[in-house]
Amino acid sequence: MTLDGPVAHVGRPRRRRALRLLGALIALIALYLGTTFIDVWLASRQSYDGYAPAAVVLGAAQYNGEPSPVLRGRLDRAAALYFAGQVDIVVVTGGGQAGDLTTEAKASYDYLRANAGIPDEQLRLEVDGTSTYESLTAAGRFLQREGITEITLVTDPYHARRAALVAEANGFTAHVAITDAPSSFRRLAGETGAVAIGRLVGFRRLDRF
Questions:
Q1: Domain limits at 166?
Q2: CA-CA distances (angstroms) from residue 141 to 146, 159, 174?
Q3: CATH code at 126?
Q4: For the segment 138-173, what is each residue's pLDDT rounded down to a tens digit?
Q5: Which letter does DSSP use for residue 95 in this model?
Q6: Least trusted range by pLDDT, from 31-45, 78-92, 94-108, 165-179
Q7: What total of structural domains would you count in the chain?
């Protein structure tokens, strides 16, 4: 007994349509991820060189008060902006992990005071954030009280696009001054995924996961 009758002829076009729809969906996803990767990659190669009232240094690891090499690179970049007159104040961000003796922000503050000589009154600390979104939300509360809504973010190249989008989601006009740290394909790919999902569901919701 064969299925070459009317039922089989009806089923084949349906399967073909389903396969075409699946192919179109896969192509759209690939296009979306591809254009997002290009966006992330281009942002990793562009550094803002203008003026903004505040630089916001995004946190990175510290070891018992000693900034990691990644964090030192960001702090040195922020100090250069300050002494070039490209920002008026520097905001350091980042809380602590379980067992830490201090926070990323405090380690950054101490480094900029002792090593760069930035005056205390030109520094601000955000000490509670454990993610880019949390840090920028918290920093936004006190910066906006000071009337500051335009900032220069200081971070590594691979992180530039997502950082700017998160800042914009928190009401900032955001620029990014990048460090000279290298950007591996793995890091760019990871940021591509985060940016792609964040644009679809919102960065606040993404941060909860």
A1: 54-207
A2: 9, 23, 15
A3: 3.40.50.620
A4: 999 999 999 999 999 999 999 999 999 999 999 999
A5: -
A6: 94-108
A7: 1
Residue pointed to by tokens 């966006």: 39
Domain membership flag for residue 70: yes
Strand order in the sheet with 123-126: 123-126, 89-93, 54-57, 150-155, 173-178
| 89 within 8 A of 56, measured Cβ to Cβ | no
Type of residue numbered 192: T
Inside any domain, residue 6: no
pLDDT in tens, 120-146: 999 999 998 999 999 999 999 999 999
Mean pLDDT, residues 3-7: 54
- Contact by Cβ (8 Å): 173, 149: yes
Do residues 53 and 91 lie in contact, with contact meaning Cβ atoms separated by under 8 Å? no
Distances (CA, A) of 209 to 133, 156, 205, 206: 12, 22, 7, 6
Give the mean pLDDT of the chain: 93
User: Is 11 domain-assigned?
Assistant: no
Q: What is the pTM of this model?
A: 0.88
The C-alpha atoms of residue 73 and residue 142 are separated, in whole angstroms, by: 25
